[in-house]
């Protein structure tokens, strides 16, 4: 009986959007593994050439990519959390608030019991925020946007109040160990791992500054030298999400709740249960991202998330509600975040040349599709960006600081051309409404 239900749901989802342009159905061409490897190789050659042309070594340095990997983790986990929720039909703009709860819970528990306890507390804190959002949207049918905003406001007020009460109270143990009303006492270092031999070998190759070879070594070294175990956990969560949501009966039923909950209900799926599971998991993943922020900088700090929950939401949209796309988006935003925090004026300046080339390519693509006005605008902006790069040596500090958010806006504006949103996302559902 269970297998029969799964087969019928699979048939329904497979036919949805089939052969429709831009829907992501079976009519869309899939990249083969050789093509993916070719794209990666082309990207490495491009980065190496850009580094050689601009003489900005940070474009392929270990330090840059190590920082990018670290800052990509919380953004990626927030985006992955949004994917779980929205695949079940629940819009979750409360990711920022759930990350706040995760950072605070990690700071509260972490200084007392260590970094791994902080990670667990962050997951529970985020899951609590997800539970609140699920009760409001699934049980009481509150508008998803309103509920998400309420979660963000509630979380902000709660963590500020509790920080003053628990960390900043005069004479308290937390205050005596360095806590105050805006931050927790310090948290011990989170364990990291290094692949013996390989990291040193890659470091020695990177020092030679050989074209492509040293650049590749610098990038690869970021994945095997002084890497947090939570980063490895995040990678496993991305892989696990793909297999759970796209290769298991549970995931098929959860996704059916976001595509056609009435049809899923008619086939015996408990839609409420799956929506609750998705939203709570969403909160737990966002909370883990918040906990990583706290242990990464060894403190809970007020406004520590810095809008990364919203950037995670943008990452999910950029990734078209797929784990691989979310991972790529997180890498991009993590790179920009890392550049900004490392004071990467030269790096951002070099990326102006990349932006000019991408805009020129976009203009050509639009022209071939007949959108001549959009093509002309894109080409003009490409020329102006190239001129900006040619006539300057760096970019203003204010632009460097705003670069992650500017990148978010640009990426979303381009990603909007190819989105395939879950069909019933944001729509209220009541049991038995299809009867």
From TrEMBL:
InterPro entries on file? ABC_transp_permease (IPR001851)
> Is Nucleus among the key words of this record?
no
Membrane topology is: Multi-pass membrane protein
UniProt cross-references to CDD domains, sorted A to Z? TM_PBP1_transp_TpRbsC_like
Which GO molecular function terms does the record list? Answer: transmembrane transporter activity
Q: Where in the cell is it found?
A: Cell membrane
Q: Would you say which domain of life the source belongs to? A: Bacteria
Q: What is one GO cellular-component annotation here?
A: plasma membrane
TM ranges are 31-53, 65-84, 90-109, 116-139, 145-167, 227-246, 276-297, 347-365, 372-391, 403-421
The main location is: membrane
Q: Which UniProt keywords apply?
A: Cell membrane, Membrane, Transmembrane, Transmembrane helix
Record's keyword annotation contains Transmembrane helix = yes
PANTHER family in alphabetical order: GUANOSINE ABC TRANSPORTER PERMEASE PROTEIN NUPQ, SUGAR ABC TRANSPORTER INTEGRAL MEMBRANE PROTEIN-RELATED
| Name of the protein in its database record | ABC transporter permease
State the species of origin. Streptomyces armeniacus
The uppermost taxa in this organism's lineage are: Bacteria, Bacillati, Actinomycetota, Actinomycetes, Kitasatosporales
């Amino acid at each position: 009986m269970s297998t029969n239900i799964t087969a019928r749901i699979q048939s329904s989802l497979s036919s949805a959007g089939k052969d429709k342009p831009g829907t992501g159905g079976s009519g869309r061409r899939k990249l083969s593994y050789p093509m993916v490897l070719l794209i990666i190789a082309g990207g490495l050659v491009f980065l190496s050439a850009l580094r050689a042309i601009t003489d900005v070594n940070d474009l392929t340095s270990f330090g840059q990519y190590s920082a990018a990997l670290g800052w990509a983790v919380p953004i990626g986990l927030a985006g992955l959390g949004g994917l779980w929720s929205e695949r079940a039909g629940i819009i979750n703009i409360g990711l920022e608030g759930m990350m706040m709860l995760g950072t605070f819970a990690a700071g509260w528990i972490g200084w007392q019991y260590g970094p791994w306890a902080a990670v667990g507390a962050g997951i529970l804190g985020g899951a609590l925020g997800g539970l609140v959002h699920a009760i409001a949207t699934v049980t009481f049918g509150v508008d998803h946007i309103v509920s998400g905003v309420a979660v963000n406001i509630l979380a902000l007020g709660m963590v500020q109040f509790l920080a003053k009460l628990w960390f900043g109270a005069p004479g308290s143990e937390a205050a005596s160990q360095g806590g105050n009303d805006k931050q927790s006492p310090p948290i011990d270092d989170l364990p990291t791992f290094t692949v013996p031999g390989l990291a040193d070998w890659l470091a020695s190759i990177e020092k030679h500054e050989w074209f492509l070879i040293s650049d590749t070594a610098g990038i690869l070294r970021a994945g095997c030298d002084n890497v947090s175990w939570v980063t490895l956990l995040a990678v496993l969560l991305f892989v696990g999400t793909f297999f759970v949501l796209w290769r298991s009966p549970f995931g098929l039923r959860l996704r059916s709740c976001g595509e056609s909950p009435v049809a899923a209900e008619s086939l015996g799926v408990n839609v409420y249960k799956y929506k609750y599971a998705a939203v709570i998991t969403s909160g737990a993943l966002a909370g883990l991202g918040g906990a990583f922020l706290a242990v990464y900088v060894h403190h809970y700090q007020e406004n520590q998330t810095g809008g990364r929950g919203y950037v995670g939401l943008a990452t999910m949209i950029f990734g078209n509600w797929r784990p691989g796309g979310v991972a790529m988006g997180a890498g991009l935003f993590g790179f920009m975040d890392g550049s900004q925090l490392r004071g990467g004026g030269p790096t951002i300046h070099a990326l102006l040349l990349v932006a000019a080339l991408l805009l020129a390519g976009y203009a050509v693509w639009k022209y071939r599709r007949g959108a001549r006005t959009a093509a002309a605008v894109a080409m003009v902006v490409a020329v102006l960006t190239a001129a900006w790069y040619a006539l300057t040596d760096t970019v203003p500090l204010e632009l460097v600081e705003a670069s992650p958010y500017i990148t978010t806006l640009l990426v979303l504006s381009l990603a909007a051309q190819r989105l395939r949103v879950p069909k019933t996302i944001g729509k209220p559902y009541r049991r038995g409404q299809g009867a």
